[in-house]
Amino acid sequence: MTDLLLNLADAVAPSRANGPGARAVLWAQGCSLQCRGCHNPQTWGPAPRRICTVHAAASWVRSFRGLRGVTLSGGEPFEQALGFATLCRALRAEGADIVAFSGFTREEIEGDVRPHARALLAEVDLLIDGRYEAELAARLPLRGSSNQRLHFLTNRIRPDEIEGLPAVEWIGKGERARVTGFVLRALGPRTAEGRA
Ligand code: SF4
Question: Does the domain at residues 5-187 carry the CATH identifier 3.20.20.70?
């Protein structure tokens, strides 16, 4: 576990707009899908941005008291599937639930569209799948466009628990302050950074 590396765009906690309860959110750096209208194009490039070991990421998550789970966003978590699978397996064994956003469909992931994709899927409790389609932009819980789907893969997260989540939130103060969530749903198109 300690030798695997993750390339992250960012990481914040606690978040309440990226799944049920208080969560740690890790944004993968690197996404080959390049959806038109993506709100996070700065996460597309595969070059190293914030490199950390899986062990360090797990320790960072554990440093927050009272977190319910972890959310993987991006960028594309399934393009770093082995590292995230290892991280999620360790945290899930300690009781965390896992939410993952992916531009790949569930069917693509189940077909191992990228190395170890199915191994990561096995550690996910709620998958939100599908490319962002700008012409299908919608105001739906945890989704930016209406083609994207919610897959409740275990009974750790219930459908009713994602109703009423804040669409966007501010986390932190000063230079470290940032907006997370679904900007389209809250503010209309392209007014701030956020998950497409
Ligand atoms: S919307 Fe998601 S899958 Fe699409 S380019 Fe942006 S980060 Fe990648």
Answer: yes
